[in-house]
Amino acid sequence: MDDLNGKVAFVTGGASGIGLALARAFAEQGARVALADIEIEALKKAEGDLLAAGAEVVGVQCDVSDYGSVEAAADRAIEAFGKVHILCNNAGVAPSGAMDEMAPNDWKWCLGVNLMGVVHGIRVLVPRIKEQGEGGHVVNTASVAGLVALPTLGAYTATKYAVVGISETLRGELAPLGIGVSVVCPSFVKTRLHEGHRNRPQELGPGPEEPDAFMTQMLAVATEPEVIAERVVRGIRRGDFYILPHPDFKAGFEVRANEILAAFDLD
Ligand SMILES: NC(=O)c1ccc[n+]([C@@H]2O[C@H](COP(=O)([O-])OP(=O)(O)OC[C@H]3O[C@@H](n4cnc5c(N)ncnc54)[C@H](O)[C@@H]3O)[C@@H](O)[C@H]2O)c1
User: Fold this and answer.
1) Alpha-carbon distances of 151 from 74, 98, 144, 216, 259, rounded to whole Å
2) Cα dist. 233→107, 148, 214, 215, 254 in Å?
3) Using alpha carbons only, how large is the chain's radius of gyration in Å?
4) Mutation pick for ligand 1 pocket among 10, 11, 12, 16 (CB with most ligand atoms within 8 Å)
5) 205-232, pLDDT tens digit by residue?
6) Pocket of ligand 1 (CB under 6 A)
7) β-strands 57-61, 32-37: how paired?
8) How much distance in Å is there from the Cα of 250 to the middle of ligand 1?
9) pTM value?
10) Which sequence positions are flagged as catalytic?
11) Atom of ligand 1 at shortest distance to CA of 66?
12) Is 29 helix (H, G, I), strand (E, B) or coil?
């Protein structure tokens, strides 16, 4: 898709961080944007700020871990703009802790948002994009944790490896239809990811009282989300499948890939 002008984007997790930067970048390209997010106050503010900047945008409250909620949000977006061409499955949370210490509810929350959120977005919106017959693009936000396992982020790593795998499958299925797929795998980005527990459902019990100290430190000095959004816009335009904005993680991936390659040749 080389021209985003007049297209419609549906961005989950669009009220904050990378999702909000994607929304701004799409609007700058002349796209109309539906922001789908669970956090109502942040959503209203993001919608208001974008409207004030002249963007065509609608905010829809949505819990991506709930299939019915994604369906309803997609209906609202289509009601507002008639179509959807670009689907960004971006909402995510990152509970941390050692593998043997993470509570089953931490897993449930993380898998619900990061994995089932992507599954729901695809199931709800890809059939509509296909039906329209105008092409389109799906962008799934994974992470470098989808390519290299990160310590104390076991549940997060599991979901992000899954998102990379889902994206690889989806790419093959949609290529014959002229619908592109990208998977974006950033390392640290300056967002509110370390404060993700603000959106943890009450029925899953309380999260930690303080955000993870290491993540707080890393995110404070990390890449601005606008840099990731620029890479995504470029990736959609030229059809990049892997969008890897942090080349400093290449060495870590090489170690993993080389170990796997060598293991094929073991007796
Ligand atoms: N920040 C980083 O360092 C980093 C690095 C790699 C990948 N990522 C990924 O980027 C994506 C965006 O995260 P971010 O860093 O911008 O964090 P963020 O917390 O600033 O934004 C995440 C957004 O998702 C929303 N959200 C949370 N649960 C939701 C749910 N159930 N339904 C709908 N929306 C929900 C939040 O309200 C928030 O607006 C995530 O998938 C994250 O894993 C982030």
Assistant:
1) 35, 8, 12, 16, 18
2) 32, 24, 30, 27, 27
3) 18
4) 16
5) 988 889 999 899 999 989 999 999 999 9
6) 12-13, 15-19, 37-39, 42, 62-65, 90-94, 113, 141, 143, 186, 188-189, 191-193, 196, 199, 219, 222
7) parallel
8) 23
9) 0.98
10) 156
11) 31
12) coil
The DSSP annotation for 196-242 comes to GGGG--GGG----SS--HHHHHHHHTSB-HHHHHHHHHHHHHHT-SE
Pocket test for ligand 1, best of 12, 18, 90 (most atoms within 8 A of CB): 18
Q: Domains of the chain, with CATH numbers?
A: 8-264 (3.40.50.720)
The amino acid that residue 210 corresponds to is E
Q: Is the four-CA dihedral 19, 119, 113, 147 of positive or negative sign?
A: negative
CB 129 within 8 A of CB 136: yes
Q: What is the pLDDT of residues 67-119, one digit of tens each?
A: 999 999 999 999 999 999 999 999 999 999 999 999 999 999 999 999 999 99
